[in-house]
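Most newcomers find our protein records easier to grasp once they have seen one. To make this concrete, we reproduce a full record directly below:

===
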Amino acid sequence: MRGYVKRLYQKKDKLSKEQLLELLDDVVQDNDDLYSIIESLSTGLLIVDNDFHLLQFNAIVASMLSFSVHPDDSKAADLPVWEILNDEEISAYIKKCADKEITNSSEEFTTITSGGSVRFKTIQIVPLVHAGKLTGRIILVRDITENKNQEMLLHRMENMANLTNLAAGMAHEIKNPLGAISIHIQLIQKALVKARQNEILPAKKFLEDHIDVVNEEVEYLNKLIMDFLFAVRPVNATLELKNPAKLIKDITGFLEPEFKEHNFQVHFSAPKNDASNEQKILLDEKLLREVIINLSQNSLAALKTKFEPADGTEIDQTLREVGGHFCIECCVFDNKYAIKVHDNGCGMSHETVAKIFEPYFTTKADGTGLGMTMVYKIVKEFSGEISIESKEGEGTCFTMVFPLPQKNKKLIGVDN
């Protein structure tokens, strides 16, 4: 169509009024089609001239980038595009490309939504050419968050696979000497008891105290090994159809006294309607309990950090009035069952959130770094997904989503 319109335009002096109007209609239709294509793209577009003043944009770019001056505003056309953007890193990148006359470049950025979520974006700058001349640039904005999340998921799975290969050998290497130490300590203890019965040794003094410390350390190392083995071995789950809301309500009641000891409130909410409240999913009751307890202990630590500073810092009156809250919500939506565990504790940095499920990553002085790895493995064993939203100083929310069993299965290839 473009070539047809161009040829007709070259003959415009020979066309009748009706033919010119028809040509104009074709041009308008072409323009509408082009506009529709631009607006239908999932990629954000900012089309600028050689001075990087905005010529055209599509609607989706306004939802992908934050603007200090909206592209629709007449003022936007009078400013270089980097001056109408809020993100300093993206603005600096575009300005650098303009200053150095770079016509083809691409770079990745992270942006934060108003809700505190991290999004990954690529900004690509390509030349805008007309009649063989450079007339501007096209700035392409793509959201690659899902791809990044998949990459991080694969990275975690690779890490866990590597740990599985090391687990058996490492466990034997450590458990064997620990077992020998434990046996010999027991023999020493028995010999000491017998010697005292025969009045060969004086009364109990420091020797047994040292032996008790050794026994405690042996027990602690054994626990570390068992945690490690659980983290790297496949989860042995016995899946049954259970009502998670009922189970979690019971677990919440068990956890509540520990939170109330620190004046933190505990809230539980089941799905709204009666049918959803009785909904069952495939899970292992013991493992679900472990997940909730693990997440609750993390929340308790976050609440204590915020509301009971270890350095004795006095918290302000407003914060004291708000108080600490730990909440678990269950809901059903779109054939999925969601469990949200959230608090208004100290929250986590973006760097911590990105590494939270990696084995041996911990922010606690006495943590093993395997608790959240176990949570991740159990949720995956239930065919679920787990995601995190966290903001420093405001709190953290873990969302676990599980598929609902299909009650009405259709038979294929069966004639009535």
